TrEMBL record:
<dbReference type="InterPro" id="IPR014729">
    <property type="entry name" value="Rossmann-like_a/b/a_fold"/>
</dbReference>
<dbReference type="InterPro" id="IPR005101">
    <property type="entry name" value="Cryptochr/Photolyase_FAD-bd"/>
</dbReference>
<keyword id="KW-0456">Lyase</keyword>
<dbReference type="InterPro" id="IPR006050">
    <property type="entry name" value="DNA_photolyase_N"/>
</dbReference>
<dbReference type="InterPro" id="IPR036155">
    <property type="entry name" value="Crypto/Photolyase_N_sf"/>
</dbReference>
<dbReference type="Pfam" id="PF03441">
    <property type="entry name" value="FAD_binding_7"/>
</dbReference>
<protein>
    <submittedName>
        <fullName>Deoxyribodipyrimidine photo-lyase</fullName>
        <ecNumber>4.1.99.3</ecNumber>
    </submittedName>
</protein>
<dbReference type="Pfam" id="PF00875">
    <property type="entry name" value="DNA_photolyase"/>
</dbReference>
<dbReference type="GO" id="GO:0003904">
    <property type="term" value="F:deoxyribodipyrimidine photo-lyase activity"/>
</dbReference>
<dbReference type="InterPro" id="IPR036134">
    <property type="entry name" value="Crypto/Photolyase_FAD-like_sf"/>
</dbReference>
<comment type="similarity">
    <text>Belongs to the DNA photolyase family.</text>
</comment>
<feature type="domain" description="Photolyase/cryptochrome alpha/beta">
    <location>
        <begin position="4"/>
        <end position="127"/>
    </location>
</feature>
<keyword id="KW-0157">Chromophore</keyword>
<keyword id="KW-0285">Flavoprotein</keyword>
<dbReference type="InterPro" id="IPR018394">
    <property type="entry name" value="DNA_photolyase_1_CS_C"/>
</dbReference>
<dbReference type="InterPro" id="IPR002081">
    <property type="entry name" value="Cryptochrome/DNA_photolyase_1"/>
</dbReference>
<keyword id="KW-0274">FAD</keyword>
Amino acid sequence: MNTKKIIVWFRKDLRVHDNPALWEASQQGTVIPVFIWSKEEEKEYQASDSSLWWLHHSLLSFQQRIPLIIRVGNSLEVLQDLIHETQADAVFFNERYEPSIVNRDRKIITQLKAQYIEARTYNANLLYNPAEMFNHNQEVYKVFTTFWKKSMNVIAHHPVPTPYKFEIYKNPITSVKVEELHLLSSKYRSDKLEQYWKPGEQNALEIWEQFLSNNLYKYERKRDFPASRATSTLSPYLASGNISVRSIFYAARKDDSPILQSFIRQLVWREFSYHQLIQFPTFPMKPLRSNFEHFPWQKDEVAVDCWKKGLTGYPLVDAGMRELWETGYMHNRVRMVASSFLVKHLLIDWRIGYEWFQQTLVDFDVANNAMGWQWVTGSGIDSAPYFRIFNPIIQSEKFDSNGDYIRKWVPELAKLPAPYIHRPWDAPSDILKGIDIQLGSTYPLPIVDHSSARLRALRAYDVIKGIKKT
């Protein structure tokens, strides 16, 4: 009988399938499954009501499968206490890539090895090891297209098997209840999110199977249309680790249909953002193009507040921001339009948008959030060109032509027919009066004029064009 006792330290990987740390431990000895809540260590990356709500319910869901030991405190100290209490021989865990977490984990590994405790880490969150994805100069890829081409010539890591039966440590040991972590700070937020989401591994797998069966082949054609419900909505499950990106990747490649490339490309884009974060630890709060440190951002708290509340006067932007507040999620196409509006129409520093998304998104992910905002701003390595300024009216007419998405999230405009629902200020007064819409009262007039805002943005970008980039 194998007497080796192994602490499996669960973090953003509350799942049994494709969990390398759990699988390896289950093959080598007795598993001691542990989750440590250290609010101070996590505050930089998981500070929002939305993400904490998700964590709370993920833990409850996971405990239905594995009797998880939950402790609170400094991670190293808790691990050392558990090693002493259980006489554990090893600590296995899957890697995370947030900069301060990376530094913390390195210190923990060093300390454990100094105490002659085996410490092993595994890649469970990425398709490829970062070292496999350098260019011919042994540098990180700076353009997604070349990264994508490289990925086609590298074999993504296969999922590990699911350990259906394994020995779990059975001796009595102190553990706190999920409720004692006090992760649910806002009942209003909790009640809202419970209407739209069911966190946890089993729910993630069910959603994936439904998408795989019903919408995967429609994804390329319909993914940009927010009213079509054609996306997988798996992003919060991926961000929390409820589901494995490698399992999704290989399931989506079940045949060679070129139609599936569009979905797979999104998974590789996610990968690209993580590789950027690993190479550039300041990625979440510092522009990768240094000349953007001199960008003439505006300080306009009123405009920021209108953007957050979905009161900009641009229906598609407002619909997206209200969807975000209501559900903790926003359709990707609308997310790009709303982000661009903040940065380029209002000239508000992208980091303010980053922080708002961090506070509100159930799928908040450090690497993806930073990549999205730096891409829209033009401050990242591979970014949208500075002169690409999304026209929220054209975007609305193109991707929500009938206005169904807007009607759902901006109900005060629900009776306004297309095309006026995309630009209410152009609607004839008799139409507005007939459906009781008073612009500036029941729905705001645009807080900026698109054409004027576009010219102002281009002038602002001209300011930094001559500044040397590093």
